[in-house]
Design brief:
two-stranded antiparallel ribbon, binds iron/sulfur cluster, about 30% helix, 3-stranded antiparallel beta sheet
Length: about 130
């Protein structure tokens, strides 16, 4: 049976070092959500990626994502796919030591449904369950 990790929204992954990549489509959604034009959004909230191959979200002084507000993501309904997909579609060895997502054994059909919902939410801006 596949394992699906249920995010507990502890925000640990919004605080650790790294970069949140944002695509052109994601910038369009995020800018609309913030009531900004894309140019303003890019200026205020993004920076060049380390490999200079695209944009990533800026960080706060302590390294947390620019959109982390207290214990909440300020752009939760339209957060980037990279955020949605962790830790089910990408993670790293030992991530469970910090991530509080709860592993649930689910049927193949349920796993596929949850993954599809997660991906669809990223494309439509809908809030995933
Ligand atoms: S966009 Fe939201 S979910 Fe993604 S790292 Fe930033 S605060 Fe966390
Ligand atoms: S994915 Fe893990 S680390 Fe990130 S908010 Fe959810 S439970 Fe916390």
């Amino acid at each position: 049976m596949p394992i699906f990790f249920e995010c507990q929204r502890c925000t640990a992954c919004c605080r650790w070092p790294g970069q949140v990549r944002v695509s052109g489509a994601e910038i369009t959604r995020l800018a609309a959500f913030k009531n900004l034009c894309e140019h303003e959004f890019i200026q205020q909230f993004t920076r060049l990626r380390a490999d200079r191959q695209g944009l990533a979200l800026k960080e706060q002084a302590d390294g947390a994502c620019i959109f982390l507000e207290g214990e909440n993501c300020a752009v939760q309904p339209v957060k980037p796919q990279q955020c949605r997909e962790f830790p089910n579609l990408w993670n790293f060895p030992g991530f469970e030591k910090t991530c509080h997502a709860i592993p649930r054994e689910v049927s193949d059909a349920e796993y596929q449904r949850r993954i599809a919902t997660m991906k669809l939410a990223g494309h439509t801006g809908a809030i995933p369950p």
